[in-house]
Methionine aminopeptidase
Amino acid sequence: MSGGIDMIVTKSKHEIEIMREAGKVVAGCHAALADFIKPGMTTMEIDAFVEQFITKYGMEPAQKGYNGYPFAACTSVNDVICHGFPSDYRLKDGDIITVDMVALHKGLHADSAWSYAVGEISDESRHLMEVTKKALFIGIDQAVIDNQISDIGHAIQTYVEGEGLSVVREYIGHGIGRQMHEKPEVLHYGPPHKGPRIRKGMTFTIEPMVNTGTYRTKLEDDGWTVRTADGGLSIQYEHTLAVTDNGPDILTQL
């Protein structure tokens, strides 16, 4: 999802704590989804679960209505990279699904995508999930004061390609706070030591999308759903974090 503002806005301790409250709800929803998602359920049922969970805590599912997006969550199955529409599609044993959600709380956002195995999955799918999750944390480890933004993407790309997988180029991480999408842009590939210096109080997402085949993508006619160009599998993991004197502080974990 595109949009945002031009300047990098650092956040106060108070703002970060509000984002953490939102992040705990998002993380709690993801934890609950791990038990909820089963073969035979529709992705629309997952969307309803997400909306009810977020609103139960008095927060808004911020993706709903964002640039006309009609749902509380994105549900991206198998070869869908991101922004998959919830539908009457019934999950099958062996599917893999990414659920992406954003909670808005007291004017501030927290954003996280997590991926789930549906029933018993293939070794290829399991490897894809393990590598992508590890890549997220390898990227997070680079989110320290005085590094540059591209150090994150360089670390992710180096690891992922070393595992024989590819990193999506067109869809990236982003600053987050009062807007869902702010500066800086956080690429998951590229050379090190480029882009803005990482400073205390910056808040942004890291959200590598990793494919089994080509990194190239294709956009569906709905204007949102993005698939792998070759029909290969894709998975995504995403956290929102804040940069502190003590390193990256993940705001979307329990």
In short: The radius of gyration is 17 Å. Residues 130 and 169 are 20 Å apart (CA to CA). The chain has one domain: 13-250. The mean pLDDT is 97.
